[in-house]
Amino acid sequence: MQSKDSNTTVNDTVAVGSHSVKGFKGLDWRDYIVYLAFIGVIIYFSVTLHDQGFVSTDNLLNIIRQTAMISLMGLAMTFVISTGEIDLSVGSIAALSSLTAALTLQAGYGMMGGVAVGLGTGLLVGLVNGLLVTKLAIPSFLVTLGTMGTVAGLAMWITDTAPVPIVDSTFNFVFGSGDIGPVPILLVWTVAATIIAHILLRKTSFGRQTLATGGNESAARFSGVKTQRIKLLVFLGSGFMAGFAGLLYAGRMHAGRFTFGEGDELSVIAAVILGGTSLFGGVGTVIGTVIGSLMIGTINNGLIIMGLDVSQQMIIKGLIIILAVAFGKKAIKR
Amino acid sequence: MEQPMLAMKNISKAFNGITVLDSVDFSVRKGEVHALMGGNGAGKSTLMKILTGVYTADQGEILIDGKPVVIKNTDDARKNYISMIFQEFSLIPTLTVAQNIFLTREDKTSFGLLNDKECVAKTRNLLKELEVDIDPNELVGNLGVGYWQMTEIAKALSQETKILVMDEPTASLTKKETEILFSFINQLKAKGYAIIYISHRMDEILEICDRITILRDGKHVATEDCKQIDLDMVIQYIVGSGMDKAFEWVEREYDKTASPVLEVKNLNLGSKVQDVNFNLYPGEIVGIAGLMGSGRTETVSAVFGTGPKDSGDIIVNGQKQNIKNASDAVKAGLALIPEDRRVQGLVLEHSVKDNIMLPILSKMQKGLLIDDKKANKVANDFVKKLNIKTDDIYKMTNLLSGGNQQKIVLAKWLANDPAVLMLDEPTIGVDIGAKTEIVDVIRELADSGKAILVISSELPELLALSDRVLVMHEGRIIKELQRREINTEEELQHAIQGF
């Protein structure tokens, strides 16, 4: 029987990292590839870019600000991918939400109105995605490929590509521009959402059933999991968080704009997969996703400081992602 | 007469006007293991799906402890203390044992969060009570198949259960695991569970079950006490007529002076295959016996090029072959029908015809295109020859029964006219009717001059087929027996255990 490990030590803290609940002897470094890679990247830039100010507090906080939206969308995407589905529409939703929120604010419905409409926009698209996937049984890749285009089009059409300025300073403070003491408000949002998402995935029935749905959908159904409802919920969650990211873009830039979030879906998915969540579903890690997102942000930041141009940045970023996933290959296999 | 714990009375069910169950009566007593048997399509699974709420009956009633109950969905079944252990497992490989057992029924902390510690503790107790040695924190995906089964049963028993349905529970278990399962079933019996045991394996049923009910074509044929029934009677009931000689050995005539068609020399693969040598002669059926993990599967996959080998020569018709993959092997004239036909043998979403054509597409070409007429003819010929039960050659293979799927796998490889045919567990999960047909087909193929190598864990089948038996143990061939020298199944069983 290959199955029985003699070591039955249980390491509860491992739950942070991934699906693995083995004793220390059974620890597989590949489960932690993203953490190792992240530390490696930080050390590399700290040494080579020390004089250009990579390690300065300002720069590090800047990385946090730049990655907040990817991290937040990544949290919800972790749930989507854990069920074995995918959501390509998040970047477009962020753009549309930034605009609907800005328009509502401009029309004088106040901050609460703007927030409600921005988040509502996200929820609505998420609902459409979820219903198409569950009721019509269309693969989520196709459904969200469709909504990605449609929503991006709507975002351009709604103001005829014109940006909508936001003058509500409270809104701008709370959703992106503000600092509480030395702490950027975007960091507060990221940390709060990460804690909630982590608990949701690891400690609630919803999270457990999300992982079960992705692990083996028919088995989950036989066990009494309402898999269609779970899928609908993860798409709602993804739409909601994309709407929230739209608010943060708007608050940070003091405007709504159709270009916000452009191409974010790829960074978000890359962050989630880098973090160790399985593209086939069943295995998901919230902390990994945030680290994955931070790593992509750090690489971006470091390469800019190094003075590389956009094309070089893209090449290097792509290679690092492939390498990291290849080394951590076990994690994406069943 | 003691009142049965479960009584299904006068159950009928039809799909699209076709009667699948016709006024079937079925009852199980407390503390009884009751076997449910019948060929594919006999209605066993439909009957059990009605019991577990997957389907509802068109007619008839279900009584538990004498009281009528209504079972409209799986929740109703649960409420009436009915649990089923599915043939296709209902476990999530990416969750732990404890997480699986308590999925959707987890303990909660006072904040409404999952209380995994409590679930783990409960699981530990449950497993201890069941005397199963599994770590509740192990991922199910890391467990061996035997332990999946135990986990599955533990899951069923973690909820209050009175009636437990097991569908082919030993299909993927080794002898040892089966023994563990049986002692486990005996425990459950003593505790007063009513167990419905669906299986194709007669010897197991006679060993573990108290009574047996046999269905045929949706009708109840017989319910008998296991002590008063024997194999021949059961086969008689299942097939209806004239198949009782199916598993009798027939001494076959073939040219024993011919030169070997396949020679395997000094085959090695780590500790899994050690110094394996054997020859196959045209027209001969050779069986490989051995426990699971004895190196049988590794040996044939190494010969066929689908598995690794460290060293060794494969010689076909006197020519040394350099086989690096399946396509080399096919060119050399070998064919392998793998163990898991669903995964390795068939493209289930494709039609009967497409599956048969797959290895011989190049022979069906006319210019650049496939010659459809020729392809249809070849496919139809095989369907007829192997008696494959399908509406037509365009039917998707996943709609066919296991036995018929296996026949398509056979057809697929025969289409290429190989000199050597290797079969790994050819009749696993196949009903007795299809089994005897497959046995007949294999004999016919050997008679037509092909050399055949059969791996099987079912010794009666191996004994029925083989002219010669190679016994493998821990990677080596420890014995080579002429079929004539083997008098009983027990003798072979002893050899396999390594004595």
UniProtKB/TrEMBL annotation, chain A:
Q: Which domain of life is it from?
A: Bacteria
Q: What CDD domains does the annotation carry?
A: TM_PBP1_transp_AraH_like
CC annotations in GO? plasma membrane
State the compartments where it is located.
Cell membrane
Question: Which InterPro entries does this chain map to?
Answer: ABC_transp_permease (IPR001851)
Where's it mainly located?
A: membrane
Q: Name one GO molecular function term.
A: transmembrane transporter activity
A Pfam family found in this protein is: BPD_transp_2
Q: What transmembrane ranges does the database entry give?
A: 32-50, 62-81, 88-109, 115-134, 141-160, 180-201, 230-249, 269-294, 314-332
The protein's UniProt keywords, in alphabetical order, are: Cell membrane, Membrane, Transmembrane, Transmembrane helix
Q: According to Swiss-Prot or TrEMBL, what is its membrane topology? A: Multi-pass membrane protein
Name of the protein this chain belongs to: ABC transporter permease
Q: Which organism is it from?
A: Domibacillus epiphyticus
